[in-house]
Every structure is written in structure tokens, then in C-alpha cells.
Amino acid sequence: MYRIEEPIYFYLLAIIPAIVVLFLLVLWWKKRTQRKFSDADLLQKLAPNSSTFKSVLKLVMLSIGITFLVISLVNPKMGTKLKTVKREGVDIVFALDVSKSMLAEDIAPNRLEKSKQIISKIIDKLGSDRVGIIVYAGNSYPLLPITTDHGAANMFLQNANPDMVSSQGTAISEALELAKTFYNNDEQTNRFLIIISDGEDHQEETKQVAQNLANEGVKIYAVGVGTENGGPIPIRVNNSVVGYKKDNKGETVITKRNAEVLEEIADIANGKYLDGNVTENPVSAIADIIANAEKNEFETKQFSDYKDQFQWFLALGLLFLVLDIFLFDKKTKWLRKADLFNEEKNKK
After folding, report:
1. Can you give the residue ranges of every domain in the chain?
2. Residue partners of 321: CB distance under 8 A and separation at least 6
3. Residue pair 84/300 in contact by the 8 Å Cβ criterion
4. 111 and which of 225, 281, 321, 326 could share a cystine (Cβ 3.0–4.6 Å)?
């Protein structure tokens, strides 16, 4: 297994085609100038040791040397073995509401982006805890299975949007049902489900599903985003607002946060409701709860003992550059005698 530490340096390989183009231009210019100066026979007598092959060989040596130096800057690392690492943590599943109502801009920049900020900041405060992400609207969708890779969680989170879910609405109960499948460690005693939503369009069976999760030891914390006064749902085309969602009567729909629904779900599952309009409040509260929770031990497998390999490529790069320096453009005497390319024969 290998790892690339600084892949950005691969862009430096663009130097090689630039050098090749420059070499060809110089070679063309030299040939053109020589033809103006004298004919081929006279040039052969004036510069009998001139060798195009040696010039090309120097170019190849230089290109190889630069390639190895660039690879050394990239610093490939080799993983020597796979080992099992024991970690301690809890399992946390985020259920993110991506319904159209989450696009309302009653809080800046909008409810959905505010929710993403909250989740991202909570993840950044976690230790070795495992996280998973569910997105839901009219139905639910697993965005990221439970994992210890917090970087991947943040990356997947940024792509969450209403278009990911086929039907609209706020089917919290479906998200709760899906969350059950995420907790794959039977020995884990501390399991958390964090719902982030405006609480609109809830279903009656949500309370029963929340109770079932509580019976299985899952604590649900609900974070409400949006205001009680609410706001319209913008319709965007090419990032510009072209109007607002309207109902069947042609009136602008005003979506409001329904905190009571979220409070009921959290209370049933031994959790707590938190106001998410100020990002830092739910982030600090949930981070403290998880930090003080009893941690369970679990195992993950990963490649370890990654060792730097840049020194080998650096040595090879310097070797080829030194060879290029000591390689002259004129023909080598013993090669001339060997006449490997039938140059003497062709003259006759």
C-alpha cells in the first residue's frame, strides 16, 4: 500500500514537454542556420564530431532526471503492513433534512447550509468516534455509512442537497428506521442519533419509531433550524432567485420551524432539543455530551509504518542530471570507430 504526500508537485512535470518543444525549436533553428551557412558536405568537414543522437540522449537524460526529482518532491510513502488498531468512541448518526423547506433563508445563508455547518463543526470536535450520515425528505437515503473517516464525512456532507432525494416532504420516521441499520456494533452501549431539521410535515408514526430506537439504547438529539415567523422558499435558476414557491391558490408558501415535533422526538428517546439558529450553541452542547459519554472499544484495520521513499527518487534524479552534465554533444570516439549507425558507410 502506498500514499502520496504532496500530489500537487506532479504539475511540475509540465516542465518536460516545455523543454522538448524548446529543444525541437532550437534544433530546427540550428539546421536552418547551418543550411544558410554552407552545404552538408562542408558542414561535415567543419564539425565532424557533431551528433544529433547525443543531443537527443542528453534531452532524455535531463527529462528522466527531472521526472525522478518531481517524484521525490511528491514523496511517495510505502505502507509496510496492515495492523489492527483498537480505538474508543461512540457511534453517532446524523440525519439531515434536505427537503425544499430547508432552502428558506430566514436564517443566513439558509437552513440547509446552517445545518451543514453545525454537523461539520461537531465532526471536527470528535475524537475517534464513528460517524454516519443520512439525508431525508419524502424518503431517506444513506449518504455515508458509519466510519471513522471524518474527512470523508465532511466531504460527503458538502454535496447534500434536495435533489438527492426523489420525493419531497419530511419523513423523519423513515430516517429513524434507516438509522437502525447504521449501528452495526452490538457491543456499543452509547449510540447517538442527531436529527437536524425544521420539523415541518412530520408523520404520526414518528413517535413510535423514536420509542423503538430508545428501547435499543439510541439517544436522539434534535436540532431545530429556522424561525417561528418562517420565510418563503426561493426558486433558483443558475444561482439567481427567480421567484418563490407557491401553493395551489397561487400564494407564496411560508415555511416555519416546528420545534414541538423535534422536542417530542428527543424527549421520547432520552435526548434533548437544541436551537440551531446560533451554530455554536448545539455544537458545544453535543460535543460536551459525546465527550462525557462512556466510550466503547472497537477495532479498525489500517496500513501502518508508512515510510518515506523520496530519497531513492532524489538519488536517481541527481544521477541522471550528473550523467547529462558529463555527456557531450559530440560523437564518442569508440562509438565512431564502431560505426553503430552506419554513418561512415552512408558517407561513401
Report:
1. 2-80+306-336, 91-294
2. 61, 62, 65, 69
3. yes
4. 225
Close Cβ partners of 35 (under 8 Å, ≥ 6 residues apart): none
In the chain, what is the straight-line distance between the N-terminal and C-terminal CA atoms, in Å? Answer: 58
Helices (H), the chain: 15-37, 40-46, 52-74, 111-124, 150-158, 172-180, 206-215, 259-268, 280-291, 310-325, 333-338, 343-347
Q: State the burial class of residue 347 (Cβ atoms within 10 Å of its Cβ: 0-12, 13-18, 19+).
A: exposed
C-alpha cell at 215: 428501547
Q: Assign domain 91-294 to a CATH class.
A: alpha beta
Cell of 120: 461539520
Which pTM does this prediction carry?
0.62
Model confidence over 297-330: pLDDT tens digits? 766 655 556 677 888 889 998 999 888 888 766 6
Q: How far is CA 277 from the centre of its chain?
A: 28
Taking CB atoms within 8 Å and a gap of at least 24, the contacts of 27-32 are 27/52, 27/55
Give per-residue pLDDT as tens, 81-115: 666 667 778 899 999 999 989 999 999 999 999 99
